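In the current project phase, our protein records have gained a C-alpha cell line. A sample record follows, to show the layout:
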Amino acid sequence: MDQKNGGNEKDKQLEQFRRQNTGKPMTDINGSKVADDQKTLRAGKRGPLLMQDFHFYKKQSHFNRERIPEKVVHARGYGVHGEFVATESMKDYTMAKFLEPGKKTPVFVRFSNFVGNRGSKDTAVDIRGFATKFYTEEGNYDMLALQFPVFILADAMKFMDVTHAAKPEPKQHMPQATVAHDNFWDYVTSNPESAHMVMWLMSMRGRPRSWRMMEGFPVNTFRLINEKGKSTFVRFIWKPKLGVHSVTLDEGNIIGGVDPDFHRRDIIEAIESGAYPEYDLCVQLIDEEDEFKFDFDILDDTKLWPEEEVPPKVVGKMVLNRLQDNFFAETEQSAFNPANLVPGIEFTNDPVLQGRSFAYRDTELHRHHSANYEELPINRPISDVNHNLRDSYLKYPIEQDNVHFHNNMQADGTPHETPAPEGYENYQEKVEGYVTREHPSDSFQDYYSQPRMFWNSLSMPEKQDLIESFSFHVGGVKNKEIRQKTVEMFANVDTDFAAMLAQNVGVTPPATKHVDYEKSYPSLSQLNSPHSAITSRVAVVIGDGFDEKEVDKALAALKGVGAVIDIVSETLSPVKGKDGMELTPTNTFLTVHPTLYDSVYLVGGKAKMNQLKFDQGAMDFFKMHYMFMKPIAVGAGAAQYAMSTEANNLDGVVMAENNPDFADQYIEALAMKRFWDRT
C-alpha cells in the first residue's frame, strides 16, 4: 500500500523532504557539478595527494561523520509507518482528541532490542522496545512500551546500574547481546526487585516469533484527565491481532546466526505483501478512589495489573502499512520521549516514569549534539510549532521574528499561551510530606508474590522452557557463588523450579522455600493467546515428478490463509510434476535453514543431480521441524521421510496418502503453531 501520494497528514508533510538523485548530474555539496568522482587529485601520476582536492575532502569528511552515536540501550531497531484509528469513546476518561471515536492518527513505530549493539541479532533473549509516535493534531504523543508488563527496577536511580550489568563486561567487551554472564546475574541477585521481569525475560516472552506477534506494555502508570478535571489511573497495552507467539531457545540461537535480521525481514515481507500488522490498543483503568484496594501498589513498575482483576478495554486499532524510505533518516534519527504528552494524558508519581521523563530527552541531546533534533522530519509534529527557543547546532527553520521572548509588547504577546483544555495544563494533584528516599509503600518490597503468580500461570511446556532458558543463561556464569545465590533467590518463586535449576547449573539445592502465594491467571500464559495459520512462513520441499493435484490443492489452501510460501529444492531450476506442471524454486537447501520457517510441507520427488543430497536436505527439514514441535505436512511422495517408530508419536504430522482432507487438516495444524505433546 503506497501511502505517499494522498496519504495521511504525516506522509504529506514528509513529502516535502523526500528527494531522489536518480537521473540527475552529480554535484558537490555546494551545488557545483562534478567531473571526476573516481580518482583523487595528485601531483603527477605517481605523486602525492594534493590538499586542494576539495571534492575528495568534502566527500571523505562527510563520510567520516555519517554515523551518530548509537543509543546506549535499544540500539538495534527498525521503524515502520502506520495509522491508528480510535474505535471507542473515552470521553468520560480523557480529553485527548486522538482517542475520539473515528479519529485517524498517523504513527511511526520503532521496534528494538535493549542489550545488543546496532549490529547484533534480532532473536537474542532480550527486552524488546515497542515505541509508538502518534502525530496528533495536538502535538506528538510518544508511547514507549516493552513486550513485558513489568520493568526490572522500581526506581529510576538504578537505570545506569542495570544497563552496565547487562551490557558486555568492560575488559573484553563480551558477550554481545546476551545476559548469560556474571555481571547481570550478580546484579539480579543483589537487587531482588528484578525477579519478576527476569522471569518474563527468561520465559518464551523473551524470544518473540516476530514483532507482529508481540504485545506491548508501556509498564508505567499514567493518568487520564477528562474535561471536568477528573483523574483515572491507566496502563496501556498493545495486543497483536495474530496473538503472542515465540521461538524456542535453540531456534533463537540458530536463527541469530543464519539470519540476524529475522524480525525486520519478517515485518518487511508482511508489509510488502499487504499482510499489514495490526494491534488493538487497550487501556486498564483504575479509579482514584480504588488506588489502594489491590495487593500490589499501582505505582510499582515491577508489578503488573492482572487482566482478570483490571480488565483491558479496547479503544482503538493500529495498522502498520508503510515501510520507511531511509533507515538512517527515519529509524536512526527518530527520537521518543515519554514526556511528549497531549492534553488528557498526565504523569503519575510512578518513580520510574518520573525518571524516564528526564532521561530520554537528555540522551537524544547527546546523540544529536543539538537541541533541534525534534525539527528532523521524522520527529516533527504535524501540528503548528511556535515557540521562543532559538539557535543551537543545525537550526533548520530561518526564524524571521525580531522578538523571541515572553512576555512582550512588540509582538503583541505572541506566541501566546492557550488556556486549558486546549492548552496543556498539569493535573492539580495534592502533594505533601517530608523529603525522603523511601519507597512509596511497603508493597514495593514484596519481590516474589507476582513472580510466583507468573510461574503458577504458566503451562507445563512454558515452565519447561523457562527452566531451560534459566539454565542456559545462569550456566554461562563462571562464579559459582553467583549461581548459588541465583538458585536461592528464585527458590522464593518456586522451590521445585529452583531445585531443577540447581541441578542443571551444578550448585547445592536451595534451602529457601517459596512464598505463600497461589494466585494464577490464564491471561499470563501465551498458550491462551489467539492461534492462527494466517501469514505462516512455509517451506515446500519439492523435486520432479510430484503429485500435481495434491500440491495444487495444498498450495491453494496455504494461499487462502495468506501463508508466505517458499519453494525449496536442490537447485533453482524449475521442478516438473507428473503431468508437466512447473514450479520455480525460490531457495535451495544451501541458501535457507529449516529454522526460518513455521512449518514444512515435504512433497518429495526426484532430484535433478544428486538424490542422496536431496533426500538428506528433506530429512534435515523434517528432523528440525519435528524437534521444534512445529506442524509438518508429508505428501504422498515423501512418506519415507516420516516413518513412525516406538520413539515418536508423529503428533502434528499430517499425512497426505489416502487422506482426502489433507489440505484442511494441514491448515488446522498450522494454526496450532506447536505440538507440545510430541514425542
In short: The radius of gyration is 28 Å. The longest strand covers residues 76-86.
